[in-house]
Design a protein that fits this description.
alpha/beta, Undecaprenyl pyrophosphate synthetase, 6 strands, 262 residues, 46% helix, six-stranded parallel β-sheet, single chain
Length: 262
């Protein structure tokens, strides 16, 4: 029976990690990075359970990973990041978990409204979804951060909260029908481009969608926009997702051939 490998001392492990991270970064800079990355942030509750914590502790740790992920995207040059934070179906979870999540959303969004990294780098922050379903304090925080960043023309950071891909398509169709009835749009002019422009993302489709947590499905996320997105699934729970995990996926993305049906 083979002996277990000795564990390297922590300082050496950190050095190896930084060296590997640097090598990945150099590789990635040799080719174009995805302009728009969608992220299904799954595995927060399972991470908490595995560590003997309450579910909302996993969500809090996940929110720390969000902060790091946004910085990684900015450093690498990703133009848009769309993060799936809370679906319309998630309202069916236990009241105490939903309440904890709403408090976390309100706190974090308000913090982004005065975050120097967001303001100095011209990041526009938006919340996509049926935000009228959210509590008043979350809506207030959304208004705060969207107002603070409304004129920014740098990168974009979208949070999908109270979001559903099917619901998004329904909302787009209702808007289009209203325009047709008012004579603002002709029925025969409705095509894929027009529909895409009326979605929450305004025609900005993701090049890459990443899902953590070990599941291999889209779970009602950007259903229309994901038609030609590259999909990557990882077993890593979102709170444990590291920069090297992100860089590995980006490097794999760069090695894929996107043909768009051609």
């Amino acid at each position: 029976m083979p002996l277990p490998r000795p564990r390297l001392p922590e300082p050496i492990r950190r050095l190896v990690y930084r060296a590997y991270e640097g090598a990945l970064m150099r590789d990635i800079r040799q080719a174009p990075v995805p302009g728009h990355v969608g992220f299904i942030m799954d595995g927060n509750r399972r991470h908490a359970q595995a560590n003997g914590q309450l579910p909302w502790e996993g969500h809090r740790l996940g929110s720390d990973t969000v902060e790091a992920l946004v910085e990684w995207g900015r450093e690498i040059g990703v133009r848009t990041m769309t993060l799936y934070a809370f679906s319309t179906e998630n309202f069916q979870r236990a009241d105490d978990e939903v309440d904890a999540l709403m408090g976390l959303f309100a706190t974090r969004l308000a913090e982004l409204a005065r975050d120097d990294r967001i303001l100095a780098n011209g990041v526009r922050v938006r919340v996509l979804g049926r935000t009228d379903l959210l509590p008043a304090h979350v809506q207030a925080a959304i208004g705060l951060v969207e107002h603070a960043t409304a004129k920014h023309e740098g990168s974009r950071l979208n949070f999908c909260i109270a979001y559903g891909g099917r619901q998004e398509i329904c909302d787009a169709m209702q808007t289009i029908i209203g325009k047709v009835e008012r004579g603002e749009l002709k029925r025969e002019d409705i095509d894929e481009t027009v529909l895409g422009q009326h979605l929450y993302t305004g025609g900005d489709d993701p090049d890459l969608i990443i899902r953590t947590g070990g599941e291999s499905r889209l779970s009602n996320f950007l259903l229309y926009q994901a038609a030609y997105s590259e999909l990557f699934f990882t077993d890593v729970h979102f709170p444990s997702f590291r920069k090297v995990d992100f860089l590995r996926i980006l490097r794999s993305y760069q090695h894929r051939k996107r043909r768009f049906g051609r």
